[in-house]
Amino acid sequence: MLKVGKINYANALPVYFSLPIDQLKERMAFVSEVPASLNKKMLTGELDAGPISSFAYALNSKQYLVLPDLSVSSKGKVRSIFLFSKKPIHELNGASIALTSSSATSIALLKVILKSFIQIDVTYQTMTPSLTEMLQEHEAALLIGDDAIRANWQEPDLYTYDLGELWHKYTGKRMTFAVWVVQKTVASSRSVLIEELSQAFIESKRITVQNRQPLVEEACRMYGGSFAFWDQYFAGLSYDFTKDHIDGLETFYELSYQNGLLPEPSKVELWQPNKVICK
Ligand SMILES: C=C(O[C@@H]1C=C(C(=O)O)C=C[C@H]1O)C(=O)O
């Protein structure tokens, strides 16, 4: 069995929603977790392929190849990655900020934004994602995914900053939060299966994005919230991985490197299906 990851947040649903599960399930087992757990399982080899935080890819890029044409990205507002703050962001110098334990990319992105763009120094503490508890002892809190969406629905009396929007404001670029990877060892030993999986993900994404209504209805059933919210949410996310996406991501890696978060400014190395040459 090929062990394949799945992000258990709404943001990754389009890549899974139209998968031909019955066709795949004899050869592939899907493991659904928050990004930080998927990052760990991929690193230790418990997973063969699937999505991880784009920052987790950069930390161990030599171990993986990136599957083409797949990501969780935004150009501007992402609507599910927020810094909730008791003060305006420019007044947070010296503050203590709580970080969700579920993330890798958004944690590094927040650090880059605060240091390089807002130009303030703060301290950080990682916590389980609960806004109330996080804000008991900290001036601001970072949440991602469904936790961030639900917290924002409560309309807390706080300053709320969308990290996708801030990144776009200061760089003019896209931000890629998750990429789909395959272990290099698995890419060579099980190339046919990886090609089948890669095509299935791309096809699922294509079908789901082409007609969003069934996905939006499913999200309403699973999470609550309005049709209009989920429709706008999925419309604002991109699942592609073009040159433009890679350019934004490598800018993030360069800034992460400059801030001492990465040992080198990683580059994206794409997986390529084996070309069969017919005579
Ligand atoms: C869009 C989101 O992106 C997620 C953020 C991640 C991170 O911060 O490490 C990882 C995977 C993404 O799916 C989200 O959490 O809502």
Number of strands: 11
CATH architecture group name of the largest domain: 3-Layer(aba) Sandwich
Give the biggest beta sheet: 5 strands, mixed
> If helices are DSSP runs of H or I spanning 4 or more residues, what is the number of helices?
13
Task: Report mean pLDDT, rounded to a whole number.
Answer: 96
- Low-confidence parts, pLDDT < 50 over ≥5 residues? none
Which value, in Å, is the CA radius of gyration? 19 Å
Shape: globular
Instruction: Give the N-terminus to C-terminus distance in angstroms.
Output: 33 Å
State the CATH class of the largest domain. Alpha Beta
CATH topology title of the largest domain: D-Maltodextrin-Binding Protein, domain 2
Q: What is the helix/strand order?
A: EHHEHEHEEEHEHEHEHEHHHHEH
GO molecular function, one term: lyase activity
Pathway: Quinol/quinone metabolism; menaquinone biosynthesis
Keywords: Lyase, Menaquinone biosynthesis
Protein name: Chorismate dehydratase
Please provide a written account of the structure.
Its EC number is 4.2.1.151. It catalyses: chorismate = 3-[(1-carboxyvinyl)-oxy]benzoate + H2O. GO terms for molecular function: lyase activity. Pathway: Quinol/quinone metabolism; menaquinone biosynthesis. Pfam families: VitK2_biosynth. By secondary structure, the protein is α/β, with parallel strands linked by helices. It folds into 2 domains: 2-73 and 175-258, 3-Layer(aba) Sandwich (D-Maltodextrin-Binding Protein, domain 2), CATH 3.40.190; 81-171, Periplasmic binding protein-like II (D-Maltodextrin-Binding Protein, domain 2), CATH 3.40.190.10. The protein has 13 helices and 11 strands. It has helices at residues 13-17, 21-24, 35-43, 54-59, 105-117, 131-137, 145-153, 163-171, 184-189, 191-210, 213-223, 227-236, 243-258, and strands at 2-7, 28-33, 49-53, 64-74, 81-85, 96-100, 123-127, 140-144, 159-162, 175-183, 237-238. The strands form 3 sheets. A 5-stranded mixed β-sheet has the order 7-6-8-5-9, sandwiched between helices. Helix 5 (105-117) links the parallel strand 6 and strand 7. Helix 11 (213-223) crosses helix 12 (227-236).
